[in-house]
Amino acid sequence: MVLSGETIKKYVKEGEIKIDPYDESQVGAVSVDLRLGNQALNPDSGKEINLQDYHLSLDEFLLANPIETITLPSNLVARIIPRSSFARLGILVTFDADLLPPNYSGKPILTMKNLSKKPVLLRSGLAICQLLFEEVDSPVEGYRSRYDHTKPEPSKLEGST
């Protein structure tokens, strides 16, 4: 079951869902907006990029984080959903790792790629995607990630680099 905006607000108030920083105005009918953070990583070059007024070039691929840190309880998952306004500009946001599992804590990774024929301006603080929360039928314990969820990191799959 997808949580409504009112239920999301209630869970945040009760501490079941933690969003830091939290601004209630970011909560919509069934989701919460996440804003683009300050830094990104180009995994092809290994270069860190400052996202203050950054033009994402044609076919360029970046890993970034939102400003917000998310912590989930054992009975919820969250899905990262792209905003249609970015899709209309030709920007794919989070086209692979879109599920935050129960007990997740950290800054979700946002994968971004420009499919348009022109550079697109990215700016820290832009509402770039949304989180949709869903209940799990029974609590899940013991999730551990191979990433630290504090900054964009390249893949840790063996043989991927």
UniProtKB/TrEMBL annotation:
It comes from the Bacteria. One of its GO terms (molecular function) is dCTP deaminase activity. GO terms for biological process: dUTP biosynthetic process; nucleobase-containing small molecule interconversion. Pfam families: DCD. Signal peptide: none annotated. The keyword Flavoprotein does not apply. Keywords: Hydrolase, Nucleotide metabolism. InterPro entries: dCTP_deaminase (IPR011962), dUTPase-like_sf (IPR036157), dUTPase_trimeric (IPR033704). This is dCTP deaminase. The lineage of its organism: Bacteria, Candidatus Woykeibacteriota.
